[in-house]
Design goal:
Length: 75
């Protein structure tokens, strides 16, 4: 049973035009199976994980105090 057939039965169910109970039985037993199969077929290529963002750059080293140089200049 193809997905199209299931959908046509679904349409009959929605519009209340389903007179064949065997169709309804087939729909109940197979609609989940068919739709799952279709969903699995679409997902078959494993979704690639999103690229991990590069690690943030290391913080700049703390600015050195220039007191040493100033004291040397003074002397």
């Amino acid at each position: 049973m193809t997905v199209q057939q299931v959908f046509s039965i679904n349409r009959k169910v929605i519009h209340g035009k389903l007179t064949n109970f065997h169709d309804l039985y087939k729909r109940v037993t197979l609609v989940t199976h068919c739709t799952r199969k279709a969903a699995r077929r679409e997902v078959t290529p494993a979704p690639t994980p999103p690229p991990t963002p590069p690690p943030p750059p290391p913080p700049p080293p703390p600015a050195r105090r220039t007191r040493l140089r100033e004291s040397r200049k003074m002397s």
